[in-house]
Write a structure and sequence with these properties.
Elements lengths: L1 H19 L14 E5 L2 H11 L3 E5 L14 H9 L2 E4 L8 H7 L5 E4 L7 E2 L29 E2 L6 H18 L4 H27 L5 E8 L2 H6 L3 E7 L9 H13 L4 E4 L6 H10 L2 E4 L8 H5 L4 H15 L2
Parallel strand pairs: 1-2, 1-3, 3-4, 7-8, 9-10
Antiparallel strand pairs: 5-6
Helix pairs in contact: 1-3, 2-5, 2-6, 5-6, 6-11, 8-9
């Protein structure tokens, strides 16, 4: 706790020193040729980039390949957020560090939480999953603690239906911020939302013809919204926001038993994982492994090659067609 407080103190001190130096004031949105948008994570960045088009300068705060749960913002990040017209962030546990930024800066623009654009679901721990030490979830029927705070799963974009809603919410925000280009923003919004909805239809058609909708992840599972939308039964080593990487022997044994009992030919892992857990389960069961990209963040090469939410989710669909054929 003391270490975290000390880091926060140094962080705020660095920001104050940076802002106290002689710097020209940042141009306002009226003085700029385009809206300045800052997004903490890749999905928000991608949606804003698609909607804003040539009239928005969109930047990704979280560096490619970085882990959002442990990210520590820099004073430069704070300045970027302070001077932007629209700041997009999750509003959940993995970007709690955003509150440090918002508590320290004089935000000149508008802040939008992705989780506020959709109907959120509470975090879920399923059978066999290794919980975070000291972290528990009450069952739905347990209401004895009326003061308990609900913890919502923030990975809202993993449902394409939600992704389309968030895209439209961003579009509405841009139309309000820059009414002179509202027609362009509206056209861009509907174009990209339609692409996402087409992807949603493709996933729905695929799962409608699956006799076994069970997926097993030898990894974290930040895909509850995806699972809910397509009625997928799943098992995983850890919850979506877990910081653990080494499950217990009991968790491994449970997942091996489930893979064999369900006759699962593929064990999944997510991006930036060392996939050692998935590999060990696959080796014990004679299964293969496959990447399922959650789109939370991308690598530098993916960013440079123009990867989008739609392209990454379409890649996931092809993976499923091969793995669950």
């Amino acid at each position: 706790m003391k270490e975290r407080f000390f880091r926060s103190f140094l962080f705020l001190l660095s920001f104050l020193l940076l802002t106290s130096c002689s710097q020209p004031p940042a141009p306002t949105s009226a003085e700029r040729d385009s809206l300045k948008i800052v997004a903490t994570v890749f999905p928000a960045y991608d949606f804003a980039r698609a909607v804003g088009g040539e009239y928005a300068d969109v930047s990704l705060l979280l560096p490619p390949g970085a882990e959002s749960h442990s990210y520590e913002p820099t004073p430069a990040d704070m300045l970027s957020v302070q001077d932007c017209d629209l700041f997009l962030y999750l509003g959940g546990e993995s970007d709690a560090w955003v509150e440090t930024i918002l508590g320290a800066v004089d935000l000149k623009g508008t802040a939008m939480k992705m989780i506020d654009c959709v109907e959120p679901l509470e975090e879920e721990t399923v059978e066999g999953m290794a919980e975070e030490p000291g972290h528990t979830h009450e069952s739905e029927g347990d209401h004895h603690d009326l003061g308990a705070v609900k913890e919502y799963d923030e990975h809202v974009w993993t449902s394409p239906r939600n992704a389309a809603l968030i895209t439209r919410a961003i579009g509405a925000a841009l139309m309000e911020l820059d009414a002179s280009h509202s027609a362009e923003y509206e056209a861009n919004t509907e174009r990209y939302a339609a692409e996402i909805e087409s992807l949603d239809d493709a996933f729905a058609d695929f799962f409608a013809n699956c006799s076994n909708r069970t997926m097993l992840f030898g990894d974290r599972f930040p895909l509850r919204y995806f699972a809910e939308e397509y009625d997928i039964h799943y098992y995983a080593a850890f919850p979506g926001c877990s910081t653990q990487t080494e499950p217990s022997a009991a968790t491994i044994a449970f997942l091996i038993d489930k893979a064999e009992a369900e006759h699962l030919s593929t064990i999944y892992y997510i991006e930036f994982s060392n996939h050692l857990v998935a590999d060990s389960i696959a080796e014990a069961t004679g299964s293969q492994t496959a990447l399922f990209h959650t789109c939370h963040n991308v690598s530098q090469s993916e960013l440079d090659s123009g990867a989008t939410y739609v392209s990454l989710m379409a890649q996931n669909l092809e993976t499923l067609r091969t793995a669950m054929d």
